[in-house]
DNA sequence: GTAATGTGTTTTTTT
DNA sequence: AACACATTAC
């Protein structure tokens, strides 16, 4: 296959770049994923590079899968299998599993998620005798997290601490880290930091990986943090074949430690770097691109650049001013139905918002309207209660020292073991130098406990022992299936019998299926590998592009995706830009980039909505439309304003409620377009006067020619 | 030791 | 509005 035929000149330059550092500045929709896939395929096919000598870092697992598939398609066959491709976290996890023992990381380490981490922080505060009111756990946790993003260690952080709070955080961090280590656990940041430490302290390991990876490619480079930066530069240090791709305008993870300087200063890091700029957009209409550009150009300190496209002008951007959140949701649902009845596919439509909480109203409206939808994110699959409960048992079998999991497993199903018993156990275990699980098996320990408690403990220890045996020989999926029964968890849910409980059983079955799939795709059947994999699943990894439904998700999750029709909802001051971002240095710029990312997801049609009142924590408050909306030139937009309920039924169209029925959101029709009117039937547009809200179209129907006010006439595009 | 009730808090965004 | 956490009652 000719890998270059379908590429434009700069894309081709990037693909055939012989070696040495390469920076690809790729604007939204400029085909960067394609270029990366083609470059890898080219290296393999034309340069004869062995796939296992390539390391590619993507932002999500989903992107990793897609990349692998694209490369396979380009080359024909499953060529990309031996190539390492995944997120920073997944790749570091793999390295640590293989080589972590050298720095004392057990290969079956568990990964603590946000909730687990919070518990450890609170334990640490407790141990230090710090009052949670004076030292909020959330604040302590985030201070530690930010420091880790910058690849600091406790000692250096403590040394440079300037405030009282920072000194406190340093002490908490110290205990936090000791606790994690004692439990054989790592948090997300540790995956990177421990890998860096491994590479630093064991030059032989560093050299092995450096030697192996002749090419290192990194996608979404604008969203890498300091630790990730160091990782890339360490691994590419030998061959110097680092290819990084990114767009400073799409940097939206600063709050997570992402440092846009990584991309802006790549040329300083590598003075001999080749820079390729991809400025042609293949995704969006001229109108959408112009609107997006109008917004982003308000940001200072950006690489000045302007995307262009040879695509059509397309239709204007719709701006809808809703009465409130519910009205906004009704508008969205009505517009979706309009488009699907005109032949659009549900999977081509996305509804985006700033915060997860905003998904509720559109969800309800979709439900009412019978529109199938999927929500990406909000409650993550593996963070569901039932999943975490079962995982707690499994984690214990892999890692007996995991106290967070022990506490969790002991609590559900209820076994009559509470804090009192647990503390007695812990005290005895410490005294005798046993691990907790070990103490549970000692007769002399059990004897000292009340009879009922002792029997419950025995039973629990037996369950863990059975599962541990199973985990030693069986693949993860079978261990999980067994755990559902052995722990009594499934019985508990069945007895409960509520719809919710049955849903939970469903989720647990799904977990078994997921395990089977992961076993197949990774070829690593063990429970430890599965658990580590599971902890690294991102929200957007659950997005099913092939499902026949509308997609609801946050602006963050939407990065890297595209849809013919995109709604961006809640464009109000305080929401987008978010109020919490406004008092952070540079926060507004990042909100604007987020908005830009949202706009540039749209291929054909972009609909922006905001509400006049918005419920915050249950109580309604007046909302002002987002400054980002004001930044879009009116020439590019069509505005629709909701009519308040009290004006309903005056004069016209008294059918039903909701904006879809009472006031027709304005569509635009070109002269010649075939249209359908509910009363007059099919016709053809012969003239358009004015535009937007006040437009009047003249339509020739089979019987008569009519002049119709677009905002009131029940007129649609005919399919 | 558990279930029920009450209170306060929360929302940015996520690997 | 929804949820986590604490207190209270059993």
Keywords for this structure?
719 residues, alpha/beta, seven-stranded parallel β-sheet, six-stranded parallel β-sheet, 30 helices, globular, DNA-binding
Question: Describe it for me?
Answer:
By secondary structure, the protein is of the alpha/beta class. The strands form 5 sheets. A 7-stranded parallel beta sheet has the order 11-12-10-13-14-9-17. A hairpin with a 2-residue loop joins strand 15 and strand 16. Helix 6 packs across helix 8, helix 15 (325-341) packs across helix 16 and helix 22 packs antiparallel against helix 23. Mean pLDDT is 85; it is low at 649-665. The chain binds a DNA duplex (15 and 10 nucleotides) through residues 59-60, 87-90, 113-114, 188-189, 191-192, 252-253, 255-256, 354-357, 360, 377, 380, 414, 416-421, 535-540, 554-557, 575, 578-581, 590, 594, 615-619.
Rg is: 29 Å
Question: Rough shape?
Answer: globular
Side by side, the strands of the main sheet go: 11-12-10-13-14-9-17
The percent range for helix content is 40-55%
Low-confidence stretches: 649-665
- Determine the number of helices (DSSP H or I, runs of at least 4 residues): 30
* Biggest sheet features: 7 strands, parallel
Extended strand count = 22
Arithmetic mean pLDDT? 85
Structural class: alpha/beta
CA-CA gap between termini: 38 Å
Kindly estimate the percentage of residues that lie in beta strands according to DSSP. 5-15%
Chart the SSEs and their pairings.
Layout: H1 9-16, E1 22-26, H2 32-45, E2 54-57, H3 61-75, E3 84-86, H4 88-99, E4 110-112, H5 114-128, H6 137-149, H7 154-160, H8 164-182, E5 185-187, H9 188-201, H10 203-212, E6 215-218, H11 226-235, E7 242-246, H12 261-264, H13 266-269, E8 274-278, H14 286-296, E9 317-322, H15 325-341, E10 349-353, H16 360-369, E11 373-375, H17 385-398, H18 403-411, H19 419-432, H20 436-441, H21 443-447, H22 451-473, H23 476-486, H24 489-496, H25 499-522, H26 527-535, E12 550-554, E13 563-568, H27 579-582, H28 587-599, E14 602-611, E15 613-616, E16 619-622, H29 627-630, E17 637-641, H30 659-662, E18 674-677, E19 681-689, E20 696-701, E21 705-709, E22 715-717
Parallel strand pairs: 1-7, 1-8, 2-3, 2-6, 4-5, 6-7, 9-14, 9-17, 10-12, 10-13, 11-12, 13-14
Antiparallel strand pairs: 15-16, 18-19, 18-22, 19-20, 20-21
The structure holds a DNA duplex (15 and 10 nucleotides).
